[in-house]
Amino acid sequence: MKPRITPQGDVIFLGWARMAQKVQGFSVVEVGKTNVGESSPSRVRTDVTVNLHMHPDVRMEWESLRKHDVCFLITVHPTLSVVTVDDVTEKKNFSEQMGVRYIRGCEIEGMLDEEGKLIEEGPGSADNKPKFTSNERTFRVLMDPNQYQLDMNRTLKQSQDEVHTTFNIFLRRKPKENNFKAVLETTRELMNTECVVPDWIHNIFLGYGDPSDANYTKLVQTNHTFDFNDTFLSMEHLIQSFPQYQVRCEREDPDVQVPPFRVTFPSNRKRLPPDGPVPTDLEADVITVEPYEKANRGPYPYNQPKCNSIPFTPTQIEAVTSGMHPGLTMVVGPPGTGKTDVAVQIISNLYHNFPDQRTLIVTHSNQALNQLFEKIMCLDIEERHLLRLGHGEEALETEKDFSRFGRVNYILQLRLDLLEEVKRLQESLNVPGDVSYTCETAGHFFLYQVRSRWEKYRTEIKPADGEQRDVTKVHDCFPFHEYFSNAPQPLFKGVSYEDDVIIAEGCFTHIKRVFEQLNEFRAFELLRSGMDRINYLLIKTAKIIAMTCTHAAMKRHSFVELGFKYDNVIMEEAAQILEIETFIPLMLQTTEDNFNRLKRVILIGDHNQLPPVIKNMAFQKFSNMEQSMFTRFIRLGVPAVHLDAQGRARPFLRQLYSWRYEKLGDLPHILDSQEYKCANPGFCFDFQVVNVEDFNGRGEHEPNPYFYQNLGEAEFSVALFMYMRLQGYPPDKITILSTYNGQKHLIRDILRQRCADNPAFGLPDKVTTVDRYQGQQNDYIILSLVRTKAVGHLRDVRRLVVAMSRARLGLYVFARVGLFQNCFELSPAFRLLTRHPLALHLCPMECYPPLRPITYTPQNSVLVIRDMPHLASFVYDEYNRRINALTAKLGRDNVLLEPGTSLPPEDLTEETIEMYQMQLEEGELPPEEPEINPIIAARVDDSLTETARTILESLRQYQDKFPEELDDPPSPAPPSPNLPPGPFSFPMLPMLQEQRPLIGPLKFPLPNKDPEPMEASISEDSRSPINPIEGSELNQKAREMLEAIDNPKPVLPSEPEPVVSKVRDRSELGEDMDSGAQVRKIARMSSPDEATRYLEGDVPGIGDGLSRVSSDERTGRGVLGVEDSVKSSLPIVADRASERAAMLLERMEAQQQETLARSAEQRIHVIQPVVVVEPSPLLADTQTLNIQEIKVEEEVPNTPMDTNYNSGKRTPTMDESSESENEDTK
């Protein structure tokens, strides 16, 4: 705020704050009379006026202050001319230095409109919000009466200015921080209130007695028959769901053994052993199954009930059965085991079995509550009986409003619609009068007009004694033909008397439900106030009420005053809820005659995942407050149902966390579904941990306390996301997670700079922390573990379980592997992760959607990523290559693009995809091929010969397929159109299918090549000729080197014998890059010897290939030595280097002459900028690449990989960082 004192003694503010505003006006509007026996006023109301001339988002935050939010009024009188935070020192008192004199708390009662009236919350308040003509807003607040009395007494005694006239700052808090007052008040009330816990859970709650006393098998049950409604899909499903019982069906006809079923359990249960033969002396319990038919609800399609389609497992059925019985039900659900589905089915079964009971749903977060509520809406539950309390209903993925205001509006609108139906029925029956005016008149109409006609109809169609049933009577005597004229016709089939009677009864059921609903809505006609209608909806109409545990703690006093009643409590995420927050929802109702009507408590959670968040370390560790009631009950030995089959992740991904559970398998669809049978396109492995070394000499850093960041991992994560988008992955199927908030913000900054403004990339579905992502999932997860010096809080295995269990199809982890795999707590997971190489393995020629079977090993086009700069340069080159090829083919003006489109590799034609899919569907692709991939085969010493044979065979096949491209030099392409400057503002379209790559599939990266992985796959149309404008100096240097190679000097006796050359086949000359790119590379070499080694295929610094192959395989470095082994198997003499040099000279001269001839006709040539990536000797330790750009007549446009960000600040690019190795990152 930067307060400043003026020479006149006034206080002005030169700064601005998001959470505080200068007070424009303050006035006390009411001081309540003192209550009997007290000395302080009963209430103190004041008005505070502030000016909200600011950004609309910040103004909206101020206008969203709700009732009971806590704010502060502050008096600041600085002693310095200008006070800033930099002036504050720890040696002096903060309030004295900043000039803070008074701080008083207040509670928001509401905001006033321009007429001075309080804006109340109610139905339609958001739509009918008053309009303001100025930026000034006035808030009505409640002051603390006791503090107000003390301030007034001090003013009278000391003759000072009144405190309340000196306030000049109005401070608000974050919405989540405003809950503490209500929660503390609820806790205090519970301590001073006689709470009666149900008898059947009393001992368990206190922690003594038999832990199984509250289980339904130990309690006395009064009801043994339950309607499982749509829980079972078939009779076979029911029999499989009760393996420990003998099932007996009352109907032996298989045709009638169809759901729904009523199941009767025995009173004294003796279950069969789960496994093994049945002992002869043990008689198994028998459960009786009774199939029945649901009553016909009406002729309209929407009358048909919604049915469950999930084939529940036996353990899930056991959880549902336990939840339907009275008592305590504990369900332990590992990740992906369907905890939410089980909870929803329990709610549905309770709703249909006990229509008079009310169920309270409590979760830890709004997101979990919304997910639960969205699934409830898909079942056969009346919409008018659903109510969602709290402030998170806006995130519900539905157009319907299930908040208390939305439900009132829904009921009022439904009432009008039903009255219109009554009017239509009245007209069809030719009844005079206005019977559809109110719900009361409609009730009289039903009683005297509708029901009487129905009773008469039933009498007419009932056959007399000895008479046959007449089918035509059912149709002819039906009195509501005209009303049901808009239903599907014919209404009656006329085949069977019984079937037509059922249809007629369904029609009357439809009419009767209309009047039953109107009878329920009659109270809403009598109640005129919005709050009265809301309260009536809460305590009478709603049967299923959902809220968060925080909302329950805040509103307990209101619930108790209203007389809120409920019979069942279901808690999702129970392992994340504090014990006090678990106990409060059990006490939201008053007892009657010291009896608590609570019948069922169902706790669903997973104590192997993250516990409640306790920020105070002393309370967390020494008071054990992070232990939830759910975890405490598990430790006490309370019987629990452990779900044992997951349906989220691939089996290999499941193994990363299944070791924490006793028994965790896979659901059948994990093995049968097509998406789990296909591998992730563009990746060699479904999960991989990538070892990330220090970037620019730095690993983790801490700009603020506990605000950890790792620039290398952040850049790696973003580069992998960009690669996945280039391969066609939808952005909403990718999530980036980190273990620290600092890394989350850093990744968001990089994404905002690189991807947000480029529709070809966009942003991932979410970028958040592991803790915030608990309970959620996505297909592909990119995880950054950040730490490089210490393991940190990931040492908590529960956090590791959450991190490993969020992915469905692919998990890619960036970490300092040596640090985490040596941690004892994390060793089981990292032992599995490190089975794959620690260098990222990609298949760039594959694209989304997945086609390759998961058992099919990639044969070619495997790219090993050495480090983050390698992947960044690869993405950069691939992006520009596709853009350049597209614009060269279509022209910039002919490219019509839409956001979110991706560009697959150009050689992946539609014919190839169709053939691949056909082979996959017909099972022609072998389930598993021998490992002939050179990168994989090179890891085994005895397979080196096979590797060389495979490469030679690939070259022969390629030469047979494209002989003209290997023998004749390619002709230079015409100038490509000019690209717009700046970041690319258009996404990419798929390449034209007729374009053919110059050399076929991309080969794996060889160690003697600079990191230009996609240079080998540049299409013929997009190749660049040698640029004559670069001058003769470059070409002259290359010519001299090539001539020196073509005419080598004689070998002196003192020099060693020339070794057998390891040059590749001559057909590969056009395979690595075009001649122009080769000339540029040769021209930059320091000596002809270096150029000779380049043409021979040998690069200094590679070292002995065999020693590299025998190095640590898990580091991925052994893979880079494969070409040395391959080259040793290709005995080609050194004279081939001179042949290549001569051929390259001829090609260079031909291209230069043709280019100069074209330059004479067209004065200006627009040449594609070429990026040459060379190893920098100055950055050899940090493995950073030196990117040099060859600029021609126009600058290289800005690319998505041009800026690094560290803590939100710009850092030098790769070029800038290469200038000074020791320069700190800004």
UniProtKB/TrEMBL annotation:
Comp. bias (Pro residues): 969-984
Domain spans labelled RNA helicase aquarius insertion: 224-304
Molecular function as annotated in GO: helicase activity; mRNA binding
Biased composition (Polar residues): 1200-1210
Domain RNA helicase aquarius beta-barrel: 3-173
CC per GO annotation: catalytic step 2 spliceosome
Secretion signal, residue range per the UniProt entry: none
Stored CDD domains: EEXXQc_AQR, SF1_C_Upf1
Compositional bias ranges of the Acidic residues kind: 1216-1226
UniProt domain DNA2/NAM7 helicase-like C-terminal: residue ranges: 625-815
Region (Disordered): 962-986, 1008-1029, 1046-1085, 1191-1226
Name under which the protein is recorded: Intron-binding protein aquarius
Organism: Oopsacas minuta
